[in-house]
Amino acid sequence: MGETGILSEDTRVELLHGEIIERSPINSPHAGAVNKLNKLLSKLFGDQAVISVQNPIELGPDSEPEPDIAVLKMRSDLYSDAHPRAEDILLVIEVAGSSLQKDRQVKMPLYAEAGIPEAWVIDLEGKTIEVYSSPTPEGYSRIDIYRRGDVLETGMVKGVEAGQIL
Q1: Is residue 40's pLDDT more than 60?
Q2: How far, in Å, CA of 124 to CA of 33, rounded?
Q3: What pTM, to 2 d.p., does this model score?
């Protein structure tokens, strides 16, 4: 679409349920949070997983979101041959400032419907980590909220103090 002039090449978009949705701009707090998560998760998972930053994931024929972080099953090609699909994804993380409502109401149900076992929303303004788990076709059936001082005990991450992320 960039080639046809419908979208400029630097327009940040993603495909959600067949609709092209413009992505929120990345400000310094958002970028810093993503960098912090990348560093932390890389240490936690080492060579056991691929930490993918703001890259597309394929969730069926009509959705290709670009989560801020995706923790992927290790694969020898590091996903250079094809984008990861739902079955490759262990955890997705959205860092939310102005995108909080969209992340909660659009992306979390999409990730649950795809069967992604765990998804987080990092609420930068509210200073919370929302951990979504137990996916069903209707959404995640469990949501846990962590604040600074709490220790994360999730399906994917254990023993990490929330303040290391927030």
Answers
A1: yes
A2: 8
A3: 0.90
